[in-house]
Description:
Blueprint: E1 20-24, H1 31-42, H2 50-65, H3 68-76, E2 88-96, E3 99-108, H4 114-120, H5 130-141, E4 146-152, E5 161-170, H6 173-176, H7 187-203, E6 208-211, E7 217-223, E8 226-231, E9 234-238, E10 244-248, H8 252-272
Antiparallel strand pairs: 1-2, 2-3, 3-5, 4-5, 6-7, 7-8, 8-9, 9-10
Helix pairs in contact: 1-2, 2-5, 4-5, 7-8
Amino acid sequence: xxxxxxxxxxxxxxxxxxxxxxxxxxxxxxxxxxxxxxxxxxxxxxxxxxxxxxxxxxxxxxxxxxxxxxxxxxxxxxxxxxxxxxxxxxxxxxxxxxxxxxxxxxxxxxxxxxxxxxxxxxxxxxxxxxxxxxxxxxxxxxxxxxxxxxxxxxxxxxxxxxxxxxxxxxxxxxxxxxxxxxxxxxxxxxxxxxxxxxxxxxxxxxxxxxxxxxxxxxxxxxxxxxxxxxxxxxxxxxxxxxxxxxxxxxxxxxxxxxxxxxxxxxxxxxxxx
Length: 273
């Protein structure tokens, strides 16, 4: 376990400061309404035009409605009851300089979403697939800026495994002008923040950290298949497909999310062998 050597600042930071808005969703048919309310709450401090907020509310509602598939899977016996956790909605900004996106993700404990592939391919979903029709709405309103990836819970579920389905909306220039107070820790502090974020997602027992004596390089060994390198203000790692990813440390919430996804993908591939 890595003990933070500096105060954790991103844990309670607002969206405009680079943090992540994360709330639980009910595990019943009221989840869509709750998602609409929470999305509006999440973006209330951002200068977004009404039409963009309306699109975001609609898409958040569609993603939340799909979380009911997990409950149905438990009732059908295809998902263990002990795996069932409350779904969650996450909202944060990603990007840097003058290019930011507002990202909304809805997490649940179902490992995959078969309808996602159908909707992404532009295929018409069967009438019984509520998720397929909903994802077609998301694909249209987000202009293709959406997806699905393995992830882990953020809230009170000890890093329960599942998936996150997301959409992104480009922040207009007028809204960017209102952003202020973005937290920019030093590279060494950022690595500590990152290690803490990963530990919060249930990876606390697997992370080993090393730092070069001059502070220029840090290494986080997340698992035997995943190592994260920090050089100056950037971090890099190799994803399960073999491609190298590189990101700026100013996008710490997105960096942590991608590393968690890569970890879960690697674990799934190992189990499949």
